[in-house]
Each structure stands twice: as structure tokens, then as C-alpha cells.
Amino acid sequence: MSSVASLRQIRRRIRSVENTKKITRAMEMVAAAKLRRFQDFLESARPYTEKMESLATRLLDELPADYSHPLLKGQVTETWEPGGRSPISKNAPVALVLFTSDTGLCGTYNGELEEAARNFIQNHPQEKISFIFVGKHGASAFHKKDNPVLGLFSDLRVSRVDEILKGLRETVVCAFLSGKVTEVHALYSRMETLSRYEPVTETLLPISKGDSPLFGDTRFCLSPFTFIVEPDRKTVIDKLIPAVLEAKLRFIFYHALLTEQIARMSAMRQATQNAKEMIEELTLLRNKARQAAITKEIIEVVSGSRAQKLK
């Protein structure tokens, strides 16, 4: 009876692992489909973001040295939009926009970002870090920490990308212009290849004329000819700087969404492979148990037959 019970238990485990394998395989396929979709989004956003940064860099280089804008580095009292920018408090913290996922089952994706965020905090010992969370996982990891939270954006569906980006840009700009924070940085996972990604920190605000853009030195990507700008360069750059910030946030957000799916697809593929190996081991164990049960029954029959003959 014990061998029969053990055999039933092994069969039950095999069925359970097979069901899990079906789920992980389905999740891998869903992640692969989303990955292709987000990859298309990223490639579509790349030319716009690149040209936008190129144009802004070019026009900033050609502006007079006394040009000022509240989102530029070193500008603290200029007026831009009603209300202008408030004076910065001496103890104003640095803001970190942390891009994580809403859910788990994506391997070490969230863990690596959270570890990078802890390193960021350690590297700024003299400054208090305020958080803006994009994704519930980061908020869950740091909700017990003594760090102010300026915003939380969750439910990261494709249909809500524009809504989330609008709210994120407003939160970032308002926190900076109000003097609540001195700097705003973004920590996200950037895709290197379709199988490799790593956490990256980008400075969002203040914008510096000498900052390295997302695509390197793009000043010479545009035509070398002098632009005729209407009505004037200052008016155009005043409108262009917020647009560059929004384009940069969009590009970063697409990278975060894409790398999340890369991580999830990889994790589910590994889980499917592990389930396959476990099924093979359990099948071998089941066969051994069944063989042992049959051998035991044969021995019992033979022993019983001999006992009858001896009588």
C-alpha cells in the first residue's frame, strides 16, 4: 500500500508540475508579444527624441551666455510659467524617479533596480532623497524608509502611457520649480541588447548645456547650415526645453517597459525549462517506483507459491 500511495503522490506531483509548465510557457509567450510591441514603440520614439535633443543642444549652443530658463542648471529665480520658480531650500532633497514593475515574476529585474537605488542613496550621504515611484514594486521596497514620496504611478498599461507620462512630467517639473528638490534623476533599466540590460541613472533636471544626451554628442546630427528660427531663438527654446524633457521621459519609460518584458520572458523560459527537467526526474522516479512495486508483487507471488508447495 505504501508503494501504491507513493506512486500516486508522484503522479500527482507530475500533473502539478505539468500545469505549472503550461502557465510559465503561456506567460513567456505573452511577454514575447509585449516585448515586440514595446520594441516597436521604442524604435518609433528614438528618431523623435534624438532629433529633439539635437535641436535643443544646437540652439542652446548658439544662444547668448546670459540666456536663462528655470529648468536650466544654475537658474533659481527666473520666471517661467505663472508663479515662476521658488527659491531652493538649503536642505532641499534630491528626487529620484525609480522605474520598476507593478508585478513580479520577472527574475532579478526589480531587485537590481532596488539595489541600484540603495547605492544611489549611499552615494549621496549629504542629501536627503525623495522618491517618485513608477511601478508598485519600488514603492513596496522603500515604503518603510525615511524618504519622502512625491508621487506614485502604477497600473502601467500600454493604454495609460500618455496619461502616466503627463502626470510624471507635471510632478517632476512642479517639484523642481517649487524648490522642493534641487535635482531630479531617473533610475531605470536600459536595454543594451535583446538579452542584456542594466540599471542606468540619468539626470533629468536641471538641464545643463554641457549634459551628455541619451545618444551621445548629437550636435552634428542636424544639417550644418544655420537655422532661421521664428519668431526668435529664445521663444523657441523656451517651448523646446519642456518638450525635450517629456520626450526623454517617454524614451526612458519605453526602455523600462521593454526591459521588464525581456526579464519576464527570460525568467519564464527558465521556469519552463526547470519544470521540464523536474518532470523528467519525477517520471524516472515514477518508473522506478512502479518497477519496484511490480518486483515486490512478483516476489510475493513466488514466495507464496513456494510456501504452498512446501505444505
Describe it:
This protein is 57% helix and 12% strand. It has 311 residues and is an alpha/beta fold. The protein has two domains: 67 residues, Helix Hairpins; 229 residues, ATP synthase, F1 complex, gamma subunit (Pyruvate Kinase, Chain: A, domain 1, 3-Layer(aba) Sandwich). A hairpin with a 2-residue loop joins strand 4 and strand 5. Helix 1 packs antiparallel against helix 5 and helix 4 packs across helix 5. The longest helix is centred in the C-terminal third of the chain and has 78 residues.
Main beta-sheet annotation:
5 strands, mixed
Structural class, by secondary structure, is alpha/beta
Q: Under the CATH scheme, which architecture of the largest domain would be assigned?
A: 3-Layer(aba) Sandwich
Which ranges are low-confidence, i.e. pLDDT below 50, for 5 or more consecutive residues?
76-83, 214-220
| Beta-strand proportion | 5-15%
CATH top level of the largest domain? Answer: Alpha Beta
What distinguishing features does this structure have?
single chain; 311 residues; alpha/beta; Helix Hairpins; Pyruvate Kinase, Chain: A, domain 1; five-stranded mixed sheet; 5 strands; 57% helix
List the helices and strands and how they pair.
Blueprint: H1 2-62, E1 94-99, H2 109-122, E2 129-134, H3 136-142, E3 149-153, H4 161-177, E4 183-193, E5 196-205, H5 233-310
Parallel strand pairs: 1-2, 1-4, 2-3
Antiparallel strand pairs: 4-5
Helix pairs in contact: 1-5, 4-5
